[in-house]
Amino acid sequence: MFAFSAVILGGRLDSIGRWILAVFDYRVWGIIALIIVLVFFFWRQFRYKSWPTGDDCFQLGMSLTGTVVGITIMLVFLFTKPPAIEMLSGGMLIFLGLIAPIVIFGYAVPRLSALFFPPEAPKPPQDTIEKK
């Protein structure tokens, strides 16, 4: 019974993944990212009465780029069976091929390095020090 439901679920996931890949090409992702950037700018101005800094904009851009790459890779390799690489346009393939390593090595690896090797040693919680 489980095998039958897994086949049905797999077929539906494949259909959903292929539909999303057909509808959300790089132009749609670009429009969504532009809308998110505009909302971010106006939200920061409305809520905090200041425009975002250059570092905030960089962090937003890297986060959006990583999100688009991650969602697209997830759809291609996890939802579709066999992987629907042929549904990606040439521009999207180049985007994934160039941006995924940049995001991984330019953003994720330095953050992991900072977590493993912080510039200053983390301090233990104060309540454990007082008990000794």
Structure keywords:
single chain; about 130 residues
What is the topological layout?
Layout: H1 2-23, H2 26-48, H3 54-79, H4 90-116, H5 126-131
Q: Could you describe the 3D structure shown?
A:
There is one protein chain. This protein is mostly helical. Helices cover 79% and strands 0% of the residues. The protein has five helices and no strands. The longest helix is centred in the C-terminal third of the chain and has 27 residues, at 90-116. The mean pLDDT is 82.
Briefly, what is this?
The protein is built from 5 helices and no strands. The protein is mainly α and 132 residues long.
Instruction: Output mean pLDDT.
Output: 82
In one word, what is the shape?
extended
**How many DSSP H or I helices?**
5
Helix content: over 70%
Overall structural class, as computed from helix and strand content, comes to mainly alpha
Order of helices and strands: HHHHH
- pLDDT < 50 runs, ≥5 residues: none
Computed Rg: 21 Å
Cα end-to-end separation: 57 Å
Approximate strand percentage: under 5%
Largest sheet: none
Number of domains: 1
